[in-house]
């Protein structure tokens, strides 16, 4: 059932939305400036949005940048607090632009992560990356090749036999190494 809100003047709305008006405009401006800086640096056209092309590795890096900007801002605030008695308001005035820039970049990185995590992309990308890593590992142990899909080119029985053989070889090698150490 639709929720309807009726206002004192008689107007009605189908639902109440989030209170976007509560987002501090100065903070939103700092975030927009960070996005604009990235746009100027990395985008090629008016509708290009570089960060939207990111894969799993890109968004891990976005998280690192978020933490870096937040920690830098934290360090700046702590340094100011430690010297506030000496420097007074002038000390804050000196660091304010850089501090706001770091906080704006932290917000922009957080916004990118929130947008990405709100979609199905993280799951899809993680599954694809996991499959790629598994395939590389299978190639390393001699099952399949980079040009073929090991799951399609060998039977499950052959696959298990190769894995058992590898495990047995590793177990024998380990036991021999232990025996050698005990003997010497």
Number of helices, where a helix is a run of at least 4 consecutive DSSP H or I residues: 6
Write down the overall geometry.
extended
Class per helix and strand makeup: mainly alpha
Radius of gyration: 28 Å
Helix coverage percent: over 70%
Low-confidence stretches: 146-152
Tell me the β content. Answer: under 5%
Distance between the termini: 79 Å
Largest sheet: 2 strands, antiparallel
Q: Biggest sheet: strands side by side, in what order?
A: 1-2
Provide the residue-averaged pLDDT.
Answer: 79
N-to-C order of helices and strands: EEHHHHHH
**Number of beta-strand segments:** 2
Note down, in words, how this protein is organized.
The chain is mainly α and about 180 residues long. Among the domains are: about 100 residues; about 30 residues. About 70% of the residues lie in helices and about 0% in strands.
Topology:
Blueprint: E1 5-6, E2 12-13, H1 25-42, H2 56-87, H3 89-117, H4 121-140, H5 150-153, H6 156-183
Antiparallel strand pairs: 1-2
Helix pairs in contact: 1-3, 2-3
Q: Which structural traits does this protein have?
A:
single chain; about 180 residues; mainly alpha; two-stranded antiparallel sheet; 6 helices; 2 strands
Describe, in short, the structure shown:
Helices cover 71% and strands 2% of the residues. The protein has six helices and two strands, in the order E-E-H-H-H-H-H-H. It has helices spanning 25-42, 56-87, 89-117, 121-140, 150-153, 156-183; strands spanning 5-6, 12-13.
